[in-house]
Amino acid sequence: GLRALTARLEIRFRQSIPIGQKLRAEGRITRKKSRTIDTEGFIYLEDGRLAAEANARFMLMSDELTKDTAD
């Protein structure tokens, strides 16, 4: 897998999410550059309604930084 740091994260809550309710999560990479990855994700309630959506950008860690955090 890739190691990355969160550069930006935006979450929009569309519905309240009751405690204990089963949820479905979907996510995908929307764009990949040499040093960044943009993603989007969605959380759905049991009845299929969209409860939350998010967009995020991650900065890929260099090999040198990965060595330091591997332990």
Helix and strand layout, with pairings?
Layout: E1 4-13, E2 24-32, E3 36-44, E4 50-60, H1 63-69
Antiparallel strand pairs: 1-4, 2-3, 3-4
Count up the helices. 1
Residue share in helices? under 10%
| Neighbour order of strands in the largest sheet | 1-4-3-2
Mean pLDDT: 90
Low-confidence stretches: none
* Structural classification: mainly beta
Task: Compute the CA-based radius of gyration.
Answer: 15 Å
Query: From N to C, what is the helix and strand string?
Result: EEEEH
Could you explain the architecture of this structure?
With 71 residues, the chain is mostly beta strands. Helices cover 10% and strands 55% of the residues. The protein contains 1 helix and 4 strands; from the N terminus they run E-E-E-E-H. It has one helix at 63-69; strands spanning 4-13, 24-32, 36-44, 50-60. A 4-stranded antiparallel beta sheet has the order 1-4-3-2, with no helix packed on it. The chain starts with a strand and ends with a helix. The relative contact order is 0.33.
